[in-house]
Description:
The structure holds 2 protein chains of 2 kinds. By secondary structure, chain A is mainly α. Chain A has a single domain (about 25-340, about 360-395), classed as Formate dehydrogenase/DMSO reductase fold, CATH 1.20.1630. Chain A has helices at about 5-15, 30-55, 60-75, 80-85, 95, 105-135, 140-150, 160-190, 205-230, 240-270, 275-285, 285-310, 315-340, 365-385, 395-404; strands at about 15, 355. The termini of chain A are far apart. In chain A, about 45% of the residues are buried. Chain B starts with a helix and ends in a 7-residue tail after the last strand. Chain B has a 4-stranded mixed sheet with strand order 9-1-11-10, with helices on one face. In chain B, strands 3-2-4 form a 3-stranded antiparallel sheet, with helices on one face. By secondary structure, chain B is an alpha+beta fold. Chain B is globular, with a radius of gyration of 21 Å. Chains A and B meet through helix 1 of A and strand 3, helix 3 and helix 4 of B.
Amino acid sequence: MNPVTQGLYESLKQVTGYIYPNEIEVHWGILVVVYPYLTGLVAGAFILASLVKVFNVKELQPVYRLSLLTALAFIIIAPLPLLLHLGHPERSYEIFLTPNFTSAMAMFGFVYAWYLMVVLLLEIWFTYRRDIIIWSQGEKSVMRWIHKTISLFSTDTSEKSVEFDKKAVKAITIIGIPSAFLLHGYVGFIFGSIKANPWWSSVLMPIVFLFSAIVSGIALVILLYMILTPLRGEKIVSACLDKMASYLFYAVIVDFSLELLDFIHRLYESEESIKILSELVLNKLFISLGIIQVMLGMLLPLGIMICIKLFRFNEELRKLLYFVSVILIQLGIFATRWNVVIGGQMFSKSFRGLTAYKMELTGFEGFFMTLVLLILPFIVLSVLIKILPPWDRSVEQSLGEKIA
Amino acid sequence: MKRRKFIEKSLTLLAQASVLGGIFRNANAEPKDYDASKHYYGMGIQINKCIGCGKCVEACKEENNVPKEPFFFRTWVERYVIKKDNSVVVQNIDSRIERSLEVFAEKDTLRSFFVPKLCNQCENPPCVQVCPVGATFKTADGVILVDANRCIGCRYCIQACPYGARYLNPETGTADKCTFCYHRITKGLLPACVEVCPTQARIFGDVKSNASPLARFRRMNKLHVLKPSLNTEPKVAYADLDGEVR
């Protein structure tokens, strides 16, 4: 017997109440949880980077390039979980060739291609162009050729060309912000536009996705910055860290308010589905939603950040608290994606029963594959950092001195 | 006498075989002069006539190669038991699932009935709207089909269907659903579930036709569709539908 079918007999035992017979299989598993999580990190990291160029937030200069590379590393891996979960991955190119324009999912190809090609790659190219040319001049063999190729064999490092680069970066960032909104907003729309599913169907969904994306992206860049800087033997610039944490704080507040609004709205309207959704939240999602997403992933870090703002902790303690907060936030946002994707499939559209989701350990949709998919972006990032070092020492030093 | 009987039997057998052969050949022949634009199909379900025998489910599975396991259905039958304390017990009537054979005491039961379910062949099908590659489509005669050679198996249509009428066929890795037995109806035959229903609880026909069992069904009954608030405009209409049915 097919292993999937065999697993369904197990799930059948855990069904409570009545579900339509075709609903026993949870169709979108852990891989579809990973996908919005990864794209969220892309959008969030990019929006953090654009704060530097569009809103001229000088304090964030040390993480500008790191944010861009993080966004690139994660967007390269983001389609993989989607691809792996398809019944026919070999036909996936059809989404590009013959898209159905009424499908939110068909837009994936275009939004993805636009974001990767027009926004991220171009911005990174213009940001690095001058540096790459200079690096390639002082290098030998492989690295020299890699850099020469990446620079597209451009050799102009004149003031005028650098000036043009800066203008280009600014223009791309201005296009990039709505694009980042589009990227993650549309992922929210994929779920929010399903009228058959009351857990998903909400006009707030794209915007909740967007703000949770900003939260997770900033938290990730903070985490990377806090780990990578000491590894390089450099000192963490507190001004930069505090500024990032500050943006994170406001993003969490907006995100939390939106989710609270969604919750109150559902409860107040109390539509036909409210009974089964309450059962879902109180039984199946109690730990992943109540404890992990809300308590550990949102309220606790929010509390910690309020304490940091209220009390004058010393730098070391502040760093430790930031570190703990961003890890909790990552955990919380992953749980958010889980609760949306898996939660939305745990109750029957007959509103009369609940089903169960049991993650496999091995296999394409298993736990180990998930781990691999979550680690892969970091491997890509380390390669990118090797080729395109994001550290701009002069900026860090001048910023450090200025603040000191 | 023996010889005569032998000849008699042989002749009957030959006659039977030729009739069967004719049907068989006919069933496999391509519809020659079928014009989809001249038809628009729908179904009527008379709930009070359904006895929950499950013949329709079995016939559908046989006719359409639906996997036999109790997780894949193009059509299924639900049993509703509304108890005197107003609690509702719903079960999928399937001999493969032990739970579905549970018996309730009559003294506790207020009312009970069976509801055959299948794809509603919606006028505004959400599954067609969301399919990223256009593998799910509506034919000119109003039937929603899946092109298994085109479907990428993303399962977005399964999520979008409010009626749970779709499943992922584990053998093909593509979305699957009721087709109204499209291979039969284009040859003038009835869908398998309609054909085998012993009580004629299912009535199939052309919505455009003025004189047909479906037209009569639509004229003689108060009709209702499932989840009308979602504006999917189902082409499967129910007579005697209880408010508890979702």
